[in-house]
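tool_call: predict_structure(chain=1)
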Amino acid sequence: MTEDKLKKWLLAFLEAPNLIAIFLFLATLALYLATRSLVGETKNASEQQLRAYIQASPGEIYNLKSGAKLEAYIRISNSGQTPGNDVRRWAGIKISKPLTIDAIAELGRGDREEGELVSMPRQEHVIIRPLGTPTTDEADAIIHGDQRIYVFGRIEYVDIFGQPRASEFCFTYFGEVQDWPQNGGPGYNNTQARYCEKHNSAN
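tool_result:
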């Protein structure tokens, strides 16, 4: 295109107000969409950074061979930067042969804990879930790995942005025990727990 033709084309474009209006509209629309997308991404990133993250972690198992009711301790904590509100908890405990992945996925919530909590950042709550007294044969089978203790449940809460959140958990204990004479005799500490292949998720 020669210089003269280019000048004529630019002049014709500038003299066409409808084309200019369309051009400005499209440019403004593109800028608006880009800005809205950036604002949305920034807002989501900020909420993800600030929101509550409530999860369960393994605790101890007591009374495996003491003649008393078996007790599982479950630790619930908030690793986020803001409180989690309306925190509801369910937990269960089960002695069983090693479960398949499908059976683990179907363990469910367990029993509902009374009340609702406000979980502050870095504050820990403990659930104590009892079970019947294991027989000597059951305890020996757990120590030998033929039976296992499954501790599982679900946590539901609302973050400060009004979004409902939930996390599920499942831990299993078996093998050699620790001995705490002052705390219910042989059992397991939290480092001996293994996370189940299923039933551990969060949103």
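agent: The chain has a mean pLDDT of 85. Proceeding to next step.
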